Automatic annotation (TrEMBL):
Domain Peptidase M16 C-terminal residue range list: 165-336
Annotated organism of origin: Deinococcus roseus
Domain Peptidase M16 N-terminal as annotated: residue spans: 13-158
The keyword GTP-binding appears for this protein: no
Coiled coil: 310-337
Superkingdom as given in the UniProt entry: Bacteria
Segments passing through the bilayer: none
Pfam family, one: Peptidase_M16
Protein known as: Zinc protease
Length: 401
């Protein structure tokens, strides 16, 4: 059963009830990611995620974490380009206590000493990612493809922007982007809906809405090649990026089936590149985002085989336009449908699908509806996408010796 309401302060509350479940999962989703940050505050969303676990005026970081552990909770948070999610799951008898703790997270104290300590932790995290070749590759590829569009900004931020960040800037960003009208509270599994709503209304009564709206600037992709010459590496890695579909596009599910067929496990790219030894890794994925989307491919090969591997990647696209079979399509549909069924059968996993789907599209899709939508994808839909301009132009970033 799907349930939905909006509190007087603008907080949207959604739930998917399963009385037979033994657990309950819940979380806050904030429409706040790196694409929402001013350039000089790049990394503030991720920094804020860290700070919310440092405690409120009533509790300290250690107390918060001990209280989660006392409930036996699985809990964590993540930040992406478009959303920050605080999530947890417990046995159903601890639902009210878990909800209180999650709400307490969104009352941060922003103590200066916690802020300075966490800044050093994040600066070290940035350095760790800069030391990783694949992280450098993808950062450079996305910056090249997105140009000045905010989706090209790093989730972590840079050493300069994080180093210069002030606690008052963090506090202001929180009050603007974490306004109740920019949040969703999602709950799945076994729970009392009236209790959830009543408790939320009481504990968030003082939260004030704000005027906040995500910007959607015009995007003109950069289709060019850039080279990151790194002599110390013994592999050549390549990332190709192209235009994709928005999360509200009706062709989104056929696109996911298509990229599974082309670049998933045991896909055409696997058999043409990895199986024959031209590459040790080859994949293609599609990311549907808010108002926009993109394709992203990755190939890793020996330097002497890199050029040939890149040629074969383009050949795979060209050949698929001519000779896709119904058997291939059926395999891709069945694989994606099973993945969806397995992934969404527990309350904790359902939480993410429920919350993110609603955040992006404003609609509810059950597991059954998701599975059936995948299984109903037709060859004509896939071929229309393959023959569209989306697969004609690629931004290429090469890294290696």
């Amino acid at each position: 059963m799907f349930l939905e309401t909006t509190l007087p302060n603008g907080l949207k509350v959604i739930g998917e009830q399963n009385p037979e479940a033994l657990s309950v999962a819940m979380g806050f989703l904030a429409r706040a990611g790196s694409r929402d940050e001013p350039a000089h505050l790049n990394g503030v969303s991720h920094f804020l995620e860290h700070m919310l676990f440092k405690g409120s005026e009533e509790t300290r970081a250690q107390q918060i974490n001990h209280q989660f552990d006392a409930l036996g909770a699985n809990y964590n948070a993540f930040t992406s380009e478009e959303v920050t999610v605080y999530h947890a799951a417990v046995l159903k008898e601890h639902a009210s206590a878990l909800q209180h703790l999650l709400t307490e997270l969104l009352k941060p104290a922003f103590r200066p000493e916690d802020f300075e300590l966490e800044k050093q932790v994040i600066l070290e995290e940035i350095q760790m990612y800069q030391d990783d070749p694949i992280s450098r590759l993808f950062d450079a590829a996305r910056e090249n493809f997105w140009g000045s569009h905010p989706l090209g900004q790093s989730v972590l931020g840079t050493a300069e922007t994080v180093g210069n960040l002030q606690v008052e800037e963090l506090r202001q960003y929180f009050h603007t982007l974490y306004a109740p009208n920019n949040l969703i509270f999602a709950v799945t599994g076994a729970f009392d809906w009236e209790q959830v709503v009543s408790q939320l209304q009481q504990e968030t009564a003082f939260w004030q809405p704000s005027e906040v709206q995500r910007q959607h600037p015009e995007f003109v992709p950069t289709f060019e090649t850039q080279r990151l010459k790194e002599k110390q590496l013994n592999r050549s890695s390549m990332t190709l990026m192209g235009r994709g579909l928005a999360s509200t596009d009706e062709k989104r599910i056929p696109m996911n089936v298509l990229v599974e067929l082309l670049g998933g496990e045991n896909s055409r790219l696997h058999w043409k590149l990895v199986h024959v030894g031209l590459a040790d890794e080859a994949s293609l994925s599609h990311v549907d985002a808010d108002g926009i989307g993109y394709l992203e491919a990755f190939i890793s090969a020996e330097p002497r085989k890199a050029r040939k591997a890149l040629e074969v990647f383009h050949q795979v696209i060209a050949e698929a336009r001519e000779n896709l079979s119904e058997a291939e399509l059926a395999r891709a549909r069945n694989k994606l449908a099973l993945q969806a069924a397995l992934r969404f059968e527990t309350p904790y996993n359902r939480l993410f699908h429920l919350g993110l789907e609603f955040l992006y599209t404003g609609r509810y899709l059950s597991t059954e509806e998701t599975v059936q939508a995948i299984l109903q994808v037709q060859m004509a839909e896939v071929q229309d996408l393959l023959h569209s301009p989306l697969f004609d132009q690629w931004s290429l970033t090469l890294q290696g010796p």
